[in-house]
Every structure is written in structure tokens, then in C-alpha cells.
């Protein structure tokens, strides 16, 4: 039996629903691999399920940090590793559910981020340039140095600054460093599933999800975060939807333009997620459009798990 089961895929593909059905069938608990659902008070924009929709399944790494706290791959791997051990001790199956491929890879391959090179002088210089010249300037610099990493982290100024800092310190690209680390052996033996569907259908689901978020009160949710002291440059505010609505509330764009930008950037993000997961050679792709509902898709995944026992 695998150490962990991974249910990954692009945003709006139905990962949460399939994972819950699977956990009910396989006696599992779910570990969220989502960079926004980890934050309290960020429910609508992160498409976080409320307790009534969790099917009685225990979820980990949801609502564990305040929006003013830093969350990165190192924090994720520490928290997720603890959750895996806890779940195993309880005799349950750890099911990792999410679309943040880099986090998932770092976890199952046991990448250690504690010894990463740091130079506060370079970082402070880059942060000052970002403040003076804007995020676009940092993105342009990162794209010249490391186009692959820049494309995968579009809009995330902190990560792009980190990549530029690493390049200036070592002369190496962050994408190359990550690729080397990804080649090392697995820390956990995974059974890896990627949910997919025709691109046009996925994009329709994304657009409907964004419209629903607005109807449910995303505008008020971001307004509340601002009132709590959450700033534009904090990690929590880098999430799709949040930064666009933040800019609208700061008077930088009208609401219609902000919503359309959310849809466009989310579609681009889904495309990058597809690209990332195609690198996972052992992944089993599940086209959920071929199944009548999430339960049927979960049953198919359960068949693969049973074959491994």
C-alpha cells in the first residue's frame, strides 16, 4: 500500500469532492496542499469547503495560520510531514489534495529547505527596487534570468525576489536547482493521481467559480482582511482573486476589470498547473468528465489503490 495518495490537478477540477469521496471509501484523512486554504478568514477566494461539506472527513492544514503570517514550501513540508505521521498512527490513509505541485513534490521527495543560501543585503535591495519601480520591474528581471521560474511564479514577488537573490549569490537558476532536487529519491512512496478534463470545460468551470465567489461576498472578505491589517505584499494576499480585489479596493481598477482579470489569471494558472503535473512521469491521469460524478471518479481511484495492496 502506498505511504500517501495524492489527488492533484488544476484549480476548479473537483479535487476536494473526489478526495472526500475517496477518503470515505478508503478510510483516509485529507491533507490540503493549497497555499491559501491554510489561512483563517480566507474562505471564499480560496474555495474552502465548510465543515458541512467535508463529509465527516478530518482535514489537515486548513485554517492553521493568520493572514499576516508567512507561508512557504518549508512551512508546508514541516506541517504536512507531521500530519502524515499523525494520520498513519491513527491507522488511516493520508490523502494529499491540492494543486500546488511544487509543495507536493517537495513533500514526497523530502527536500530540505533549511540550508538555503540567504543574503539579506541583496534581498533588501531587491525589495526596495520592487517598491520603487513596481512588481512588473521585478518580473522582467526574473524573466531575463530564469524565464521558466518566472513563468511558474508570475505575480509572486517574494518568490521572484528569492530567485534573483539566489542567482546573484550562486550564478545558478532557481529552476535548475529545483529540478536537481526533484530528481532525488522519494521520502514517501506515493500513488499519484491528476484530475483532468477538456480545457474548454475547465475554463467554463473557472469562470462560474469566480462569478460564484463574487456572489458569495469575496469583495467583503477582502475588505475585512484589509481591516485586519493584511497588506498587499503579504503572502496571503498573493492568491488569485485576493490581489485583484485588493487593487480594486485601493482604487487602482474598476470591479468589472478586476473580476475579468481574476478569470483570465486563473485560466493561465490552470494551464501552468497542467504543465507542472505533466512532469510527474508516474502520475495516473483521471479525466473526470468521463465519470457521472465525483463518487464514480473516486471509485476508479480506489480500484488503483486496491491493486497496490
Task: Supply database-style keywords.
9% strand; 13 helices; 309 residues; single chain; 6-stranded parallel beta sheet; 54% helix; globular; 2 domains; alpha/beta; Rossmann fold; Histone, subunit A
Instruction: State the end-to-end distance.
Output: 5 Å
Q: Looking at CATH, which topology of the largest domain would you report? A: Rossmann fold
In percent, how much strand structure appears in the residues? 5-15%
Q: Can you count the helices? A: 13
Largest β sheet strand count, sense and barrel closure? 6 strands, parallel
CATH architecture of the largest domain, by name, is 3-Layer(aba) Sandwich
Q: Average pLDDT value? A: 91
Structural shape: globular
Superfamily (CATH H level) name of the largest domain: P-loop containing nucleotide triphosphate hydrolases
The tally of strands reads 6
- Tally the structural domains: 2
What spatial order of strands do you see in the largest sheet? 3-2-4-1-5-6
What is the radius of gyration computed over CA atoms, rounded to a whole number of angstroms? 19 Å
Classified by CATH, the class of the largest domain is: Alpha Beta
Q: What structural class should be given to the helix and strand makeup?
A: alpha/beta
Low-confidence residue ranges: none
Q: Could you estimate the helical fraction of the residues in percent?
A: 40-55%
Write the layout of secondary structure elements.
Elements: E1 4-8, H1 15-26, E2 28-32, E3 59-60, H2 73-89, E4 93-98, H3 101-109, H4 120-133, H5 135-145, H6 147-152, H7 157-170, H8 174-182, E5 190-196, H9 199-216, H10 218-227, H11 242-249, H12 255-277, E6 284-287, H13 294-308
Parallel strand pairs: 1-4, 1-5, 2-3, 2-4, 5-6
